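Memo to structure team: turn this sequence into structure tokens by end of day. - J.P.
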Amino acid sequence: MDKLTIIIPCYNEEKGIKETIENLLSLTVKFNGQILIIDDGSDDKTPEILSRFRDKIQVITHPINRGYGASLKTGILNSYSEHIAFYDADGQHRPEDLEKMYKGISDYDMLVGSRGKNSHQDYMRKPGKWVLSKVANYLTNRKIPDLNSGLRVIRREKIVNLLHLFPDGFSFSTTSTIAFMYL
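Reply from structure team:
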């Protein structure tokens, strides 16, 4: 199995994007893959940092900030590999976890990473995410370990057919997790 497109939605990530790219480059060589970054209208130094990697990555720029889900949709529609991965720009994920997930995808349409307790968290969003998680677990009658994880490996042909269901904002993760549970 080879050829993986790693889609990284990116908005004002000057603090973490350089290290994130550097950490993933060896993985792209290993799997004959590519890094596709969607710069969602960043107005910090993110575009300047991305320009340093132009020979190693592909960048698509939204002229204005359209949202996390819109960035993922742009990435999906501009990828051509059998499998795609979503990976957050802020360095909260580990390449070895992505590699492990990619090696295990053959029997599934989507695998979602689960962040540990020591992972980066926005504490202002924590109460809302807790409520959303409880509602999703109730509605699906299943325990979903990390409903909003930005680390995913997906069979591209499956998600392309569902794009019309997904919003342009952060709820893309939640919506796609639940949609894939009912494929």
